[in-house]
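FORM 7B: Structural annotation worksheet

SECTION A. Query
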Amino acid sequence: MDRLSNVLRRRDLNPEIDEELQFHVDSRIRDNIAAGMTDDEARRDALERFGSRARAREETRDVELIVMLETTAQDLIYALRGLRKRPAFTLVALLTLTLGIGANAAIFTIVRSVLLRPLPFPQSGDLYAISYARPGAPFWLYPGMSDSNYLALRERNDWFEATATFASAPLTLTGAGDAVRVIGATVTPDFFRVLRVNPIAGASFATGDDQPGRNHLVMLGDSLWRGRFGADPSVVNRTITLDGVAYRVVGVLPPGFSYPANAEVWTPLTVRADPHLTFTRPVIGRLKQGVTRHQAQAAFAALATNLTTDDREKLESVAQVTPLKDAVVGDVRRPLSIFMGAVAFVLLIACANVTNLLLMRAVARRQEIATRLALGAGKGRLVRQLMTETALLSLGGGLAGLFVALVGGHALLSLVPTGILPRDAEILADGWVLAFTLAVAVLTAVVLGLVSAFQATRQDLSGALREGPTAATRQSHRLRHALVVAEMALALVLLVGAGLLVKSFLTLRAVDPGFKPQHVMTMTLDLPAPRYRSAFDLTTFHDRLLASLSPLPDVVSAGAVNWLPLGGMLLRGDIVVEDRRPLPRDYIVTKASISPGYFPAMGIRLLDGRNFTDRDGAKAEGVVVISEQVARLIWPKGDAIGKRISLESNPTPQDWLTIVGIVEDVRQGGLTHNVVPAVYRPYSQVTRPFLLNRMTFVVRTAGDPQKIAPMMRSALRSLDKDLAPQSVATMEEVIAGTIAESQFQTRLLSVFSTLALVLAAIGIYGVLAASVVERRREIGIRMALGADKAAVVGLMMRRTMLLTGIGVILGTAGALAVTKVLAKLLFKVTPTDVATFTIAAGVLVVVAVLAGLLPARQASSVDPLIALRAE
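SECTION B. Predicted structure
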């Protein structure tokens, strides 16, 4: 009996040991009695001579363990020797597995960090985002609440230990080196208590620190503390300046804390009830011990119906208690899940490729395996040997894949546009990534080993010994062909997915934004309210800066707008027509404040009437320019010029504004958004400072706009050395930022589909090349009987097209089912786009033909005499 089988069946071996020991003991007892001993003396002597059964079992077990270790060492040495003797096979298999496992490990690193790892707060599972707002209402931000509703919740809260609300905005830090823009967060005093985050120096905000006169306090982030203040502990109680206002530093937060929005400084937020304020802010809370999310959700929903007196708002508003991690992650879960599925497909294709390589190698070793079986080797012993070989390959691929994941993961993250991935600062490879990679490698080793061992040991001994070394079984052919078909089908699914995203991205990039972005440079400023308090102060500064920008070299025109198109922010609200004609329900427009030169600088066409001029000042008659969509809806006869509207809900006589021009529609919110009607007003006629403290200056140049950027910064410094621009970018860069997420998704899936296509091509080439070797005698006979090279090439290519055709059919069916998950990532492209499916199938066919041509040409070069003599 094979020694390995004995070891593996130890439970059967122990009774045999007992029987043998009992036989010797009984024989010794009989001999002792025959020699004149009593029964007790004879039994005692026999037991002393042969020892206990337990000790015999232990000794046998020790021997078996030693034998097993020796056998394992022999298997490893033999496997390493075999892999070293076939460097081409080993290199291709290792590289294939490295790519497949490495791609999975790289994506899992991101998925683990973004989706699976808990938030970096103590007991983060108890943290929830709380919202009560109208989805689709102006200024709606999920999850969030208005200040009035937040205060009502805080007063009647019985389910949360504490609640907090916050907001974020960039600030200008001065007094610590050159003026610099930092990300600031304003938070209610309970914010850090909710998150259970304690400072590493100083103290947190205390109750009452949000009251006017006491709220000029600030906490610093660790990176800012180290970078700007040299990690000096004495910075606590020092005064710094943010947007021109002095703040006293009360504490420094621990390394890695940057919530929300990668904040670097935190100041107290004063919340006041104002029924006219429709802005919402995020609200977070920590559940009390013993309270479940469902209980809090039900109680909050019941309370929410009393938070407003507006019956329609009660019906349309939604009360939600959402895990904070889900709110932080947002919509990124779907694309990451799709990418995880894509790399799983790549791994399956890699496994199919390596399995084919192992099957081809098994054909070459068929006589060797048959000989070993004929000489008495157990199948279990052979299975173990083959499993050892695949384990070495898989573990080697896993280690190399982990290295690829670490290196490729950093490269991948460097390509991710800023703001696309939440929690990007937390992305790192940890023990879970290592365990995942090891698990994938082990699973791959088991699957590959079982398939190759099953195929290698299921053969007819006499047939294998009688046939040549290159003869393959029918089952081997079928399995290899099935694997190639599976590779082609999986590759087609990925190709179709990538093709859909490519077409969607190209469609998105071709969208007309309503302006001409070429040769346009932008500079966005946030003017600090303490130094620029009134609308007059703000407009005076804007006028002076525009006067400095217009004479710059190469400048064709210059203008300014408070809400830059595609800039991520906009103001929307309702309008009233002077003749009180009814408008569609919830009809809202974007409201922008601009300078007279804005339309020429942006390249927005004037369709009727006139642009604003310098005469449209603060004391002049109120005027507006409307977009084409407003004019077409309200004045379809084309008589909008001269009509009057108001941007106020209950206008006074001074609130009526005369329409002086109509411009083409602009995609203000984003290229994927529908065009929203717009009303433009001269910023010199705006009296509310909060509509003017943020302004983007737009300069159109005759040449390269990048050359004007340093001069724009210099012009700003000449007016106020303590101001730092929030951003300086060309309009083409602004557009690129709005489509960056779509571009990244397209590139990533295209990389995976290309990798799958290459692996599938290698699979086809390998199968056909092996087929040439195995059918060498048949090809020689055909050519000896008169077949020409074209006939032999056709014979091989027919097999290629047959396998490819089956793969295309199965892949098309799979793609129709799988690509539905891409629907939300596509722009004006359906998941069943016929053109994309056709092109993807065509690409797969072309690649398959190219992969099959080389083996086909090799087959046509077979010398009949040499082939027959070799057989």
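SECTION C. Observations
The first helix runs from residue 3 to 8. The radius of gyration is 38 Å.

SECTION D. Sign-off
Analyst initials: ____
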